[in-house]
Specification:
Two copies of one chain form a homodimer.
Chain A (H helix, E strand, L loop, with lengths): L3 E2 L9 H7 L9 H18 L5 E5 L2 H12 L5 E6 L2 H12 L3 E6 L8 H10 L5 E5 L1 E2 L4 E2 L2 H8 L5 E5 L11 H4 L3 E5 L10 E6 L1 H9 L9 H7 L9 H17 L1 H21 L3 E2 L6 E2 L3 E5 L6 H12 L1 E2 L1 E2 L8 E5 L6 H17 L8 H14 L1
Parallel strand pairs in A: 1-14, 3-4, 3-5, 5-8, 8-9
Antiparallel strand pairs in A: 2-10, 6-7, 7-12, 9-10, 11-13, 13-16, 15-16
Helix pairs in contact in A: 1-10, 2-10, 3-4, 11-14, 12-13, 13-14
Chain lengths: 380, 380
């Protein structure tokens, strides 16, 4: 059985990138690799909207989140955590592990954070050293307005730390213009690579926080990253860097605007198809939805746990369900990176088959037809 | 843009086989390669329904067709060619090139050959040394009854040469039981490999013909194949043999019955989907259709040349059209090898988009819905 990935990440890696990463290991101090790392270091900052260096480390996205906490704050310091899903909660857990005092602005899963509430929380806690926020919350598909949040803290001493791991590339990130101080990314989302690389961009304001921080950190040390730059502070993940070099070329060939339009089109098509099949959109206006995944609540009587299992075991398609209280209710279809409309046709073909298996009644072709219709309308 | 192949061959090669073929080149006289070739030589005959050796050569399928002509007959000898499509015509061209006198039993494109007409032709030309027939005629999607043709010649001196290049694996081939004398295969159809290998199986009766033949031949020489067996008479295509070894494992894991049922299901789904979209089935009963491809005539006003170009340029999907007088009218969708129902969902998604581009009117999801319905019905 063929396996198909339609998750928020890892995503399907195009053969071109798999082959680039399958090359023999080149030593990272070789002239060839140094030239290639220079190109990577030149290619990343524009994607973050920054003139500052972007550091690449061997780690998952969670490592980058921990690195930000471990480098920018000290035990006992106050931070504000903006949380409307699973990854907002992860920022809380990491902050607890590092002994920070976290004030949480919580918003229900399925909503976007209100910048006004963030400003109010800041007013209540003027001593915070920073705010930690997730851009695209992949547990729900909500997009947070990090631009407005950046604006709130621009003229304060508090830094803005953004987990842009899934949102980067798919949605605009203008780090310098929006006043964001730490922006985190990872390889297995829009970059279309296997997991294993994380990206960290730091503003001058962030460096002030780093220099003041008591840590503790070593592998995560931003100061070591800066000291060894442009090379890596530890052995770099060579295969993934070879892939990243090629990924930047692919992104350049497609162009960021086209990349974003493609993802917006996929999100629109997936949402319409889910609605046509009787699902209800999880993110409702005025809340903003991410184009990384499309999340929807299953029709009455359909358990998404059973649906996911059928999709995976019988049809080889991996999509994700709801976490925590949304388990069994939510369905999340990922379409980030190399996914195209015809992949969605295959994924929705399997979804329709699995829904029929689960006893749901509808005319076959209802979902796939919406994909075809949306793509065709989008072009004409 | 992602590229998707839905042609009668080359077909999409599963990553498992690509990786097997991407290994370093092993010398063909090494102990490892000799053991692997022994396993290949043991694995192929059951797929041909024979107890005789199956020879593997570095060549396309056409090379195997030429080898059969060059080894089994002599200039000036009479043969009967059964022709109902492009590959039947190829047998005629090769026979002309080798100076044979060919009597042709022709049947219109889109029909299966009538075994009775073959018997009648034999009665008119009792001096023929052999009959050449295509099993699955991929230019039209017709399947010829090679079993019945084998029966006609069983107790005669004439040998039966079968081009089973696309039909092998997808449809049963019982060479010994059906009295077939030369059966030809190739790597890039049911075997799911890249093009480059051809297979030749020979009965004892075929060897009598070979020993009598005046050639000319050298690379194609069956006597050299026998002399060097189990090794190759020339440098073997090592990468493809590495892939073939893995392909035989994959076929063994799926099982031939399941492999055939899968292809029958894909043929049924593709035909229903095409009919639902306004196409008309090209092969009508009592003529038999091959499960290698599904061929259908386009609805009034749709030029399949334009359609193919749109599919390829705009959606990255390669399907094939009609050859000769069917150019612009016929559409042929391949689903041989590793193709599955979700691949068909993607291909039909693209076909629907391209049909909308060409101005054809229908409810989007009409074709993909038939795929979903047929697969689901087939399972329940």
């Amino acid at each position: 059985m063929k396996l198909r990935l339609a998750t928020p990440g890892p995503t399907e890696v195009p053969q071109r990138l798999l082959l680039a990463g399958a090359r023999e290991i080149v030593h990272h101090r070789s002239a060839e690799m140094e030239a290639l790392i220079d190109e990577i270091n030149a290619g990343l900052p524009p994607l973050f909207g920054t003139g500052s260096p972007v550091y690449t480390i061997a780690s998952s996205g969670t490592g980058a989140m921990e690195a930000a906490v471990a480098n920018c704050f000290s035990p006992g310091e106050e931070v504000l955590i903006v949380s409307n899903g699973y990854f907002g909660e992860r920022f809380q857990a990491i902050s607890r592990a590092y002994g920070l005092t976290a004030h949480v602005v919580e918003s229900p899963w399925g909503t976007s954070i209100s910048p006004r509430e963030v400003a109010d929380a800041h007013a209540r806690h003027p001593g915070i050293r920073g705010v930690l926020v997730v851009y695209s919350e992949t547990s729900t598909g909500a997009l947070n307005d990090v631009r407005a949040i950046g604006e709130i803290f621009r003229d304060t001493d508090a830094i803005v730390v953004v987990d842009a791991i899934s949102g980067l590339l798919v949605h605009p990130v203008e780090m310098d213009a929006w006043g964001l101080d730490v922006v985190l990314g990872a390889s297995h989302k829009g970059f279309m690579l296997p997991p294993g690389l994380a990206f960290i961009a730091l503003s001058d304001k962030a460096w002030t926080a780093v220099e003041r921080s008591a840590g503790p950190n070593y592998y995560w040390s931003f100061q070591r990253l800066r000291q060894f730059y442009p090379m890596s502070s530890s052995s770099p993940a060579v295969s993934l860097l070879l892939g990243l070099h090629e990924s930047l070329k692919m992104l350049g060939e497609e162009g960021l605007d086209a990349f974003r339009e493609r993802h917006a089109g996929l999100g629109r098509a997936a949402e319409r198809a889910l609605v046509a099949l009787g699902f209800s959109t999880f993110i409702q206006p005025p809340h903003r939805r991410s184009n990384v995944i499309t999340a929807a609540l299953a029709p009455e009587g359909i358990d998404t746990g059973t649906l996911l299992k059928t999709l995976s075991v019988k049809y080889g398609v991996t999509v994700t369900g709801g976490q925590a209280h949304l388990k069994g209710k939510l369905l999340r279809i990922g379409h980030v990176g190399a996914a195209d409309a015809l992949d969605l046709c295959a994924v929705f073909g399997a979804l329709e088959m699995a829904l029929l298996d689960c006893g749901h009644r509808f005319t076959p072709g209802t979902g796939t037809g919406e994909i075809v219709r949306t793509v065709h309308e989008g072009e004409n």
